[in-house]
């Protein structure tokens, strides 16, 4: 399976920043991994124009569970697709914390995204307090159980899981490689148990303070099939080496 280098711009990015994406696309015309950028929704359409003809794919950072309707300020999966997105991040810990998104809400959004033909990147991860209490695998297991479909009624490639320890996001701190490996092994086993052999083809991303300096060692951990990168995805000079590391992996 091809690794996935996914960049989440979060609430960052103006039209002037499209130059970073063009520089990235130019520097990596044919990467040996999938490359995805998830800018704010305001930029998807213009970014699609900016990277037309390149290997860079685009995604949203959230979508509503409904296809349309009276939901002021929300964006549907169909709208993301219409703007040029092929993927959408769902259940990011910042959405879970800032907008009270439960596993059930994430599940409904995941179904909407898949129905619209988007690849769903579902995020899970423990808080620092949960980690300190030794609850990491219990938390991940519960989030996987509640945020995913009962059956895999999509291609295994269309559902991606991102493990993002909440305490590692934007902090410069990362779990040990052994800890990353243990969670990813657990997630693979859980998905195999739930979905059968097709789950071998699902990509499992690590996210949380991935930088050029730690990318190679993290991507060498078994069952890590890519990264969901925040801060280091904003600049081509930072994200480029991460794409290169995943192309080698
Ligand atoms: O979605 C990305 C993650 O939240 C990681 O963010 P970060 O790379 O800035 O730590």
TrEMBL record:
InterPro entries: Aldolase_TIM, TIM_sf, TrioseP_Isoase_bac/euk, Triosephosphate_isomerase, Triosephosphate_isomerase_AS. Homodimer. It comes from Pseudorhodobacter turbinis. Pfam families: TIM. The gene is tpiA. Substrate binds at residues 8-10, 170, 209, 230-231. This is Triosephosphate isomerase. The active site is at 92 (electrophile), 164 (proton acceptor). It is found in: Cytoplasm. It catalyses: D-glyceraldehyde 3-phosphate = dihydroxyacetone phosphate; L-erythrulose 1-phosphate = D-erythrulose 4-phosphate. It comes from the Bacteria. One of its GO terms (molecular function) is triose-phosphate isomerase activity.
